[in-house]
Design brief:
Number of helices of chain B: 11
Largest interface: A-B, 27 and 19 residues
Order of helices and strands of chain B: HHHHHHHHHHH
Number of strands of chain B: 0
Order of helices and strands of chain A: EEEHEEEEHHHEHEHEEHEEEHE
CATH topology of the largest domain in chain A: Rossmann fold
Low-confidence stretches of chain B: none
Helix content of chain A: 25-40%
Number of strands of chain A: 15
Number of domains of chain A: 2
Shape of chain A: globular
Number of domains of chain B: 1
Strand content of chain B: under 5%
Mean pLDDT of chain B: 90
CATH architecture of chain B: Orthogonal Bundle
Distance between the termini of chain B: 55 Å
CATH superfamily of the largest domain in chain A: P-loop containing nucleotide triphosphate hydrolases
Structural class of chain B: mainly alpha
CATH architecture of the largest domain in chain A: 3-Layer(aba) Sandwich
Shape of chain B: globular
Largest sheet of chain B: none
CATH class of chain B: Mainly Alpha
Radius of gyration of chain A: 23 Å
Mean pLDDT of chain A: 86
Structural class of chain A: alpha/beta
Oligomer: heterodimer
Strand content of chain A: 25-35%
Chain lengths: 295, 226
Amino acid sequence: MEEILIELHLNKKFHTNNGVEKLDVHLKIPKYGLITLFGKSGVGKTTILRIIAGLTRPDSGFIKVGDELWYDTAKNINKKPQQRNIGFVFQDYALFPNMTVKEHLLYASPQKETWYISELLDVFHLKGLCNRKPDKLSGGQQQRLAVARALARKPQILLLDEPLSALDSDMRHDLQNEIVQAHKNFHATTLLVSHDINEVTKLSDFVYVIGNGKIQKQGKPCDVFDNTTIQPDIQLVGLILAIENNILTVSVNNNITKILSTPDEIENLKINNKILITAKAINPTISKLTDDENH
Amino acid sequence: MDEAFLQTFLISLKLASLTTIILFCVGIPIAWFLTYSSFRLKVVLQAFVSMPLVLPPSVLGFYLLLAFSQNYWFGNFLNHYFNIQLAFSFLGILIGSIIFNVPFMVNSVQTGFSNLPVSLKDASYTLGKSRLTTILRVLLPNIKPALLTGVCLTFAHTIGEFGLVLMIGGNIPGKTRVASLAVYDEVQALNFDIANKYAMFLFLFSFVILIFIYSLNREYLKWKRF
């Protein structure tokens, strides 16, 4: 049985575009694990991270890290963010425009150990960019700096809030590897927020699926996504352009296809109707297009 | 005459410099509080801060004069225990102009703070940095243009202040007579040449300060942020 580092139980009402939602979650996070919180946007994933970091206050509950209580409504304990040994990577990176790459790491590192800072610069390929300010860095470099800065404090827990959402797929691929590498090198228990199934499956050991303010499922990504989320069929949405006898002319993803169908199926269909086409995923023809993605 | 001219201007500059320096120190904490605090009665404080923008200077001057007067408890208290007389003194007009310029400093700095992403403050906190360190190392360095705007506006506005200084200070040469009062005074005495000297100087001075602020703000817009 692996050691549990963080255990938390949270209640929090929060505002979303759809009105007030209630968050009620219970998480157990193993030491040195790489855990993801998965769910649509607006379900409170970011709120959970902010509560762990101490940036948002829950309505009730507790957060226990190791033997320490970081938050407990019953005992009236609420540690300030500064007293919680965490690293937080914000969705917008929150880099300081006035500091260079090196100054970021020096600012974030309490002991200012040169060897550790130069290791971070190395691992995140920032060595040549030491004297650049954030506005002179590319999106990927900014993201790396954000992760490096979060690790400079040698946190027990690394919290990543959709760190890759602003990047294109090539960059995502590289940085996903770097996050895995950093997780191995720096031994921080990592909690990642994502709404990308590929990313979750690739990166994490364990996933909590959050919806309607609750944990709907939990487990290894391949188990969790296996049955319902991963469809046995291929589904496509198409637009009917013409109907002739039993043949539908349909536009799917800007390709025009002819589909043979039965009279019952055609009965209620008209031109310009949107339709869902389901095909069995057995023995399809597959051919490689690019080297780009990685699955 | 030249000596009086110089003396009047020195009082103006002294008043403006001291007002600006003191407000810079006081205004930043107030602006920080107004931006980041979730205090429920914040809107009342915000209204107080902005009051001098809409209030006639004579109204504020009138109440301050009453407060400073020895016929009332505050002025009496100061005189009795500290031997300080604020009415018709330089210290009096300094306090008046500090209160009167609060919105110029605070609103500028507050705009600067609220234009920064909140995540900068949060990020600094999660790196274990205290509130003070965060303000000094992260927030203030990133709102330099807003700070400069606050400083320039406060300074220029103090130089141009008329009603309040007249009410509290009483236009005493060498003590509380500032350049903006001198213009009025010299016109009353039909000394149009001297009045023009004062007026022209004030005109050019204000113009230069505004050009400085606007060119700064242009730099500010060019400054790449995210």
